[in-house]
Amino acid sequence: MVGMTSAAGLVGFLSEPDNSLQSFALQRLNDGIELLWPEVAGSIDKMHALYEDDSFPERELAALVAAKVYYQLQEYNESMVFALGAGKLFDLDHPGEFEETILAKCFDTYIALSAMHNPITPASAANQQPPQLTTSFPPNANGSASTAAGLTSPTTPFSQSTLPSKSLLSRQESTSFDPSQPGGGNAGMVGAHPAPLALNRSIQKSLQAIIKRVFENCYRIGAYKQVVGIAIEARNLDVLKEAILRASQDEKAKGKKASTGATSKNEDLMEYVLDICMNLVQERGFRNEILGLILDMLHDIPSPDYFAIAKCVVYLDQHSMASNMLRKLVEEGDPKSLAIAYQLSFDLYDNGTQEFLSDVMIELPETEEETDSTALPHANGDAKKTLERTGENQPLLSEIGTSDGGPNTATMVSRTKAKEPTEEEKKRFASIRYILRGTKTIELNLEFLYRSNHSDRNILNKLRDSLEARNSIFHTGVTFANAFMNCGTTNDSFFRDNLEWLGKAVNWSKFTATAALGVIHKGNLSQGQKLLEPYLPKANNVSGSAYSQGGSLYALGLIYSNHGTDVLPYLQSQFSNASEEVVHHGGALGLGLAGMATGSEDIYGSLRTVLYSDSAVSGEAVGLSMGLVMLGTGDTSSLEDMIQYAHDTQHEKIVRGLAMGMALIMYARQEAADELIHGLLGDPDPTLRYGGIMTIALAYCGTSSNKAVRKLLHVAVSDVSDDVRRAAVMSLGFVLFRKPGSVPRMVELLAESYNPHVRYGATMALGIACAGTGLDEAIDLLEPMMKDSTDFVRQGALISLSMIMVQQNETMSPKVTTIRKTLQKIIGDRHEDAMAKFGCALALGIIDAGGRNCTIGLQTQTGNLNLAAIVGMAVFTQYWYWFPLTHFLALSFTPTSIIGVDHDLDVPSFKFHSATRPSMFDYPPEHEVKAEEAPEKVKTAVLSTTAQAKRRKLHKERQQRRESMDIDQTPTTPKILTVDEDKMDTDDEPSKSKDDKAGDKADSEKEGTPSADSKKKPEKEKVGYELENMSRVLPAQLKYISFPGGRYVPVKKVCRIPPNIM
After folding, report:
1. CA 395 – CA 1036 distance, rounded (Å)
2. CA distance 992 to 1005
3. 247 and 266 in contact (C-beta within 8 Å)?
4. Calpha distance 1039→266 (Å, rounded)
5. Helix extents (H) in 848-932
6. Do 1022 and 919 contact (CB within 8 A), yes or no?
7. Quick one: how far is CA 978 from the chain centroid?
C-alpha cells in the first residue's frame, strides 16, 4: 500500500452491500493496519457487524482486523476475543509482536479460567481445627471468639477500621483458601491472575485449541518444563500428568541414546516438578494433590526416579509406599537395585521423622534383629492412636486414599507378606534397618568430624584469658564457644586441661558446662552414656550437685538428639523419679531432644504431670519439651491442654515455654495453623502473642508465603510489646530462608528503626536466612550494626555475622579476615559491654563450628526442610530469655563432607576430583599467637660530650693534614716495581676477586631459596586436585566435584552431604 495516506475510502467500502468490496477493503486494511489504525478505530463497529453476520464469507478476516485495531488501542481483552474469532487467520507459525502479545493474553486467560474451574480444598478444611480451637481463646475486643478475619487486637495502638482504605495494612486477610476468588489460593498475592473474562463456548473452544497447539509444539521440541509450569499455575493436573507421561514415552522411544547420559530428561523433569511444588506452590492442599499424582504415576513411568519419589513419600507421610519401594528393590536382587535401596534409605533418614522411620521399619519383613529394631515403634504406639483419634493425619492421606495409590499399596503389602524373604534378603533388610535408624549416618559423620577436626585451641585460650571467669556470663560464653567449636568432634581436651577454670562454674553455669559435653560428644552413641556416668543422677547419691545432674540429662538428650531409641526409657525414668526442679528442667530438655517428633503419648503424659505442679523452673522446659515430642503433629488435644494451662498459670516462664511448645506442634502445618495463629495474636498476653509469631515462623518456615510475610511485617510495626516486634522481624528469616537474597532488601529499613529490639530482630533475620552463604548484601547491612549504640544489637550483629561467615575463607568472602580480627579485638577490649562480649564469644564458636567442618543448613541437600536444624535454630533464639537453650544451635550444625560407602556399608578408599584451586575452599588460617619475645639489648648511650670530643678530634686531624700538605718535601725518585712485585699484586687481585665471586655465589645460594619461593608465590595454582573419600566438601563446592571412571561410581548425582552409595 505504497503511497496510501488515508483509509477513508476503504472504510467507506465497508458500508457497501457488495461482499466483494467489503472483502477487498478488509484485505487492504489488514495489510496496512499499523499505519491506518487511527482512522479505522472510529469505524470499528462496522467490523463488529461484519464479524457477527454469519452470511458474510470473510467474517474471520473482519475479526482479525478488529483484533489488530484493539491491539493498537491497548484493549488487549477485546483484541484477544476477536483474534480467537479469526480462527486460522490468527497465525502462530510466523509470530510477530501482535501475535506474541495476544498469545500471552490467551495463556493468562486460560490459567485464570482453569484455576477458577479447578478449586483446591485446603489441607486445613479436613482438620476441623478452627471450631475446636476457638473455644480455648477468650473473646476479643469485638466480642467474638475468633480473630481470624482481622488484625485488630486490644493491645495494638490503632484499630484496623481507622486505617485508610487503600493502606497495605487495612487489607482484609483471607484466613483460608478461597477458591471463588480470582487466582484461587494466590488471590491478593503478587502474580495472581485477574478475574477471567466471560467467554462464549465457541471462543473458549478456540482458546483451548490454541493452547493445545502450543503444548504440542512444546512436546515436539522437548520443552516439557514450559507445559509443566503452565499446568501447575493453571492447577490443571490432567495437563501435568500428560506432560510427564509424554516425556517418559519420548525417552523410551529414543531407547539407549537417552540412557547413556548422566541424567535423563524424565529425571530432570521430575526434579523440576518437585522443585516447583516444594518451593513455589503455597497452598498445602494443592501441593498434596501434585505429590499424590506423582506417586500414582509411579507404575506408569517405565524407569521411575525413586529418589524424587522419596521426597513425595516423606512429605505425604506415606510410610507404606516407602517400605514397599525398599522391599521391591531388595527383591529384584541385582547390585544396582540394592545400591538404590541403600541410598533411598539414607535419603529417608535424612528427611523423615523418628515416627515415620519407625513405621517404615515395622512394615519391612522381619529379621533376626527384629526385637531390637522395634524398640522405638513400641514406644510410639500410643501416639498413633492419638493421631487416629484426632484425625490430624487425615488431610494428608485422604486425598491420596481415593486414588489408585491406596489400593495398590494394600495389595503390595499383602503380597509381600505372603512371600518369605531368603537369608540373603534378610541380611539386606537388616542393613536397611541399620541405615533407617540413623546409626550408620551418625557413625560416619562422627568419624569424619573426629578425623578432620581443625578447631583452633589458641582462640579458646585467648577467650579464657580475656574474659573474667568470676563473671558467670563470661564463663558461660567461653563454655558455649568451646562446645560449638568442638561440636561432634568428641574433643573435650579444653575442659580437661582447664579443670581449675571449669571449677569456677556454679549453679546454672555448672548446668550449662555439663550440658556442653553433650554438644561436644553429639552423636557418640556407643559411649555417650558412659562418658556422662559421673554426672548422671544416682539413686543412692545424695551429695551430687543438682545442677550437674540436670545438665547431664540435658547433655544425654543432646548426644541422642532426634535418635533417642536407646535412652528414652532411661531419661523418662530419671525424669519421673526426680525431686529437684533443676533435674526436672534438664530431664525435660533431654526427653524433648531424644524423643523429638516421636509423638509419644506416654512421654507427653509424663511431661504434663510435672507441668501441673506449677513450678516456674521446670515448667518452662516442660512446655518446650511437650512441643518437641509432638513436633509437627498438629495434635489438637495437646494444644487444648497447653492453651488452657497458659491462661491459668501466673508464671511468665511457663507461659513462654508453652507458647514455644505450641509453635513447635504446628511445625510445617501452614494453613492448618492459621486458627491457632490468629487466636494467639489476638490474646492480651504479650507472651502468647510472641508464641503466635513463632507459630507463623515454624508453620510457614521455608515457604516464602506472602501471607505470612505480610502478617509479620504488620506486627513488626504495630504491636506495643518490644518482644513481639523483635520476634516478628526475626521470624522473616525462617519464612524466607530458601530465598536469602530477598531478606536484606526486606529488612533494610527495619535495620535503621528507632527501636533497638526491631534492629536486633533484623540482625537475627539476616543471620537465620543467610546462614553459610557469605552473602555480601547481608554483610554490608550488619557491619555498621557492630558499632550500634545498643549492646544487644551489637550482640545480634556479631552472632549473625558468624552464622553467615561460617566456613568462609578469604577467597570465598574477602571480608571474613576483617571480621575475625574485629571479633578478636572486641574480646580483648576491657571497655566493651558484657552483652556484646558474650555475643562475640558465641560468634567465635559458631564461625568455627564442628572443628571448621560444619555449616548451618536449614534445608537438606535434597531440598526438604531440615527438621532438627530448624527446630534447633528456633529454640536457640530463646537464649534471649534463658542461656542454657543456646546449646540447641548444635542441632543446626551439618557436617560438610562427601562420604561414599559400598554394598557392605564399608568406607572404601577412592579419590574424586574437584575442578577448583585448592585454596578456593580451603580451611581459613589459624589464629596467630605472638610469641613472647626476649628483651632486646639496649644500645649503649652516647653522651653529647663524647660526640663533641670526637668532632674536635676529627677537626684537629684535618687541620694537621692541611698543614703537612703546605710543607715542600724533598723530591724522591719513584720506586720501580719489580716483576715479582708486580706479579704479586696482579696475582692477589684475581685471587681476591675469585674469592669474592665465590663468596657472592655462596651468598646468592643462601638467599636463592627465599627469592625463588617469593617468585613462586605469585604463580597461579593449578586448577583441579584429588580428594580422598570422607573429605571436607562445602555445599558450594559440590558442583565442581566429579568422579573419574573407576571402580566406584555414585548411584545418584552427588548433590547431597550425607553418605552416598558407591
Report:
1. 37
2. 20
3. yes
4. 21
5. 849-852, 867-876
6. no
7. 95
pLDDT above 80 for 304:
no
Q: 1038 pLDDT exceeds 70?
A: yes
pTM reported for the whole predicted model = 0.78
Instruction: Tell me the β-bridge partners of 912.
Output: 1027
Q: What is the 3 state secondary structure string of 799-836?
A: HHHHHHCCCCCCCCCCCHHHHHHHHHHHHHCCCCCHHH
Q: Cell 522411620 maps to which residue?
A: 357
Q: In sequence order, what E strands does 107-223 have? A: none
pLDDT band at 257 (very low <50, low <70, confident <90, very high): very low
The three-state secondary structure class of 394 is: helix
Rounded Cα distance between 523 and 905, Å, is: 18
- DSSP letters for 514-567: HHHHHHHTTT-TTTHHHHTTTTS--TT--SS-HHHHHHHHHHHHHHTTT--TTT
Amino acid at 705: S
Cβ atoms of 766 and 804 within 8 Å: the answer is yes
Per the DSSP assignment, residues forming a β-bridge with 621 are: none
Residues in the chain: 1062
- For residue 914, the 8-state DSSP code is E
For residue 935, name the pLDDT band (cuts at 50, 70, 90).
low
Q: For residue 699, what pLDDT is reported?
A: 93
Locus of grid cell 515455654:
657
Min mean pLDDT across 19-23, 556-560, 622-626, 842-846 is at 19-23
Task: State how far the Cα of 505 lies from the Cα of 518, in Å rounded to an integer.
Answer: 17
DSSP string, 204-228: HHHHHHHHHHHHHHHHHHT-HHHHH
Q: Exposed/middle/buried for 403, CB within 10 Å: 0-12, 13-18, 19+?
A: middle
Task: Report pLDDT for 133.
Answer: 59
Model pLDDT for residues 581-592, shown as the tens digit of each residue: 999 999 999 999
Classify residue 1060 by its DSSP letter: E
Whether the per-residue pLDDT at 172 is higher than 50: the answer is: no
Task: Look up residue 21 and give its three cell numbers.
Answer: 468490496
Position 387 scores a pLDDT of 38
Alpha-helical (H) ranges within 118-200 are 123-127, 129-133
**Residue 214, C-alpha cell as written in the block:** 502450543
Alpha carbons 499 and 511: distance in angstroms, whole number: 15
Q: What is the pLDDT of residue 147?
A: 37
